[in-house]
Design goal:
α4 crosses α8. It is globular and about 65 Å long. Helix content is 69%, strand content 1%. The chain starts with 7 loop residues before the first helix and ends with a helix. Strands 1-2 form a two-stranded antiparallel sheet. The chain is mainly α and 324 residues long. β1 and β2 form a beta hairpin. It is found in: Mitochondrion inner membrane.
Amino acid sequence: MAEKQVSLPAKLINGGVAGLVGVTCVFPIDLAKTRLQNQQGVQVYEGMLDCLSKTVRSEGYFGCYRGAAVNLTLVTPEKAIKLAANDIFRQKLSRDGYLPLWGEVLAGCGAGTCQVVVTTPMEMLKIQLQDAGRLAAQRPVPTPAQAAAPGPAPTLVAPPPARPSPPPRASAMGITAELLKTKGLAGLYRGAGATLMRDVPFSMIYFPLFANLNALGREKLGDVQARAPFWQSFMAGCGAGSVAAVAVTPLDVIKTRLQTLQKGAGEDTYKGIVDCTQRIMMREGPSAFLKGATCRALVIAPLFGIAQGVYFLGVGETLLDLLG
């Protein structure tokens, strides 16, 4: 079915604004998802709420937003590419105002493929920053007796309890510089295959499902589909996003494990997608592939609901009209 034509600059603006708003709202849940998925031996967190509670206690409220700067910086081109590419592919594949289901799936496939160029380095950096708090929580803390133990030169005054010095706080720029120095550009694209393996099926499920949910009850004005109201676009985005997110959660677990550079004590490292899949299955069982599924649904549903709501409200068109 035909949609109202929107200019490419407006699509890019809509996608960027939608991404910024969505990520700001749901980033703490995304952080919990990453930490839960990376747990192998030592279970630091028992669930999403326990993870968020412990994060706030140990790292403060803004600890829940570790890695958010990377996401907020790169989510604009990522969401803009994803949403704009899907619309462009849909328009190119439409014939006489009609887009068959295979065309909707193919358009979603193209959108998921295009976004990986931005998604992979964004996820790579974000995961290292998000998981740093989990690794710090695994480090042993000295007991009071150990902390108060006298040094090599005893004195008459008892020394104050020694506190372990925290490791230097990682930054996105520092991680990027180290990866480029040691592994080149390929270092930033570690896990690109797993990212593609996750994002392409996600888009193939999400975009056709969203388009059909968003078209329910809408009338056609001539050869153009009437614009959906905000609430319908929001609910369609939430529904399609949650279904697609849960469906590809096993692939997201594999991607997260492969892209995590620093491992905790006794945690596995992986040689590739097949090795990661086999090790998780043998050592943790099939249920490990659904780690963070609830968090992922709670992240993706409002993220894409907000994204599609903003997109179909036409924020980009309005902004271009004001500037023009």
